[in-house]
Amino acid sequence: MTIDEGAPAMTGAAEPTRHALAQPHSPTFDLQVVNDGKLGIYDAIVGDREVAGLTYNLAGEDRVVLLATSVIPEFRKQGIATELIRRVLDDVRSQGKTLTIMCPIVRAFIERHPEYVDLVDREHPGATPGHVHVP
User: 98, 59 in Cβ contact below 8 A?
Assistant: First the structure.
């Protein structure tokens, strides 16, 4: 599968399956985040290598369920997961969708970055409700 360099962020389910996301807070190396809507994963790519991913499912038209974040061991502790999550949350926000959080790494990120708490779906916050206060 090819990566669409410089493609716009995903705006709807009918869009092509892979989209590159903007890079506002990139780590020190070139990191590209691509949404593979067909597989339900946001991939973090360094060079031509997929080094991390955040899997998701869609729940209806307006909610994204974030399932799990993973980073290849040699790329851990370099800010990749943090940047991947930030870009995914920004993409979800740009689509006007809410989140259900199943991934404990995403939940911890939102606890440290309360500017994203408004994305958490009030009725379906996720598997560990109570850790992130949803107003």
Answer: no
